[in-house]
Amino acid sequence: MVDMKNEVKKLVISVIITAAIALGTIPIWNIANANNGLSLASLYTNMNMSVNIGRFPSLLIIDDTQALENIKATPIQIRNQNSVEKDYNLYFFIDKKTTIDKNLLRVSIGNEIFKLNEMECIEDDSGYYYLVHSNTIDKYSNEDLEARIWLTEEASDIDNDAKLVTNFVTNI
């Protein structure tokens, strides 16, 4: 009988110790997970902007005054994937593989026309960057823009094999 009482006491003490350890580690576990969550959230504050570009129509040679009316706009969507508001710059990029004279190109964002030959550009090993739009986007939101690209009338004698390699990028 005495052995059985001792065994029951040991069992009760073991259960109490186990419960105390479990209850004591739960707050520590929760604090550790909360800190881990904060560090994961901080990873989503410095992501690049996402740029989705529609398909551009054939490149036209057209006068600037007629371009906005006669060239179908191509949608560009800038998406802020960050958990904070972000400033960004949108650049029109021309690859150095392009054989068309970049000074003959025009770009519009909305109704604003950009004459590349009158703009400052940033050059690197792969190409030329022209700043065409700047803005601030709220966290997890989008900005929809409309773009057009065309050639000036001075490009009338352009070679049929000429090529144009371009893109729109953010924050180079």
Question: Can you offer a commentary on this structure?
Answer:
The longest helix is centred in the N-terminal third of the chain and has 42 residues, at 2-43. The chain has helices at 2-43, 64-70, and strands at residues 50-53, 74-79, 86-95, 105-109, 112-115, 122-123, 127-137, 142-151, 166-170. The model has no long low-confidence stretch (mean pLDDT 85). The strands form 2 sheets. A 5-stranded antiparallel beta sheet has the order 1-2-8-4-5, with helices on one face. A 4-stranded antiparallel beta sheet has the order 6-7-3-9, with no helix packed on it. The chain is built from 2 helices and 9 strands; from the N terminus they run αβαββββββββ.
- What's the main sheet like? 5 strands, antiparallel
Structural class: alpha+beta
Q: What is the CA-atom radius of gyration, in angstroms?
A: 30 Å
Global morphology: rod-shaped
Largest sheet: spatial strand order: 1-2-8-4-5
Helix tally equals 2
Helix percentage range:
25-40%
Identify low-pLDDT runs: none
Average pLDDT across residues?
Answer: 85
Amino-to-carboxy terminus distance: 82 Å
Number of strands: 9
H-E order: HEHEEEEEEEE
The amount of beta strand, in percent, is 25-35%
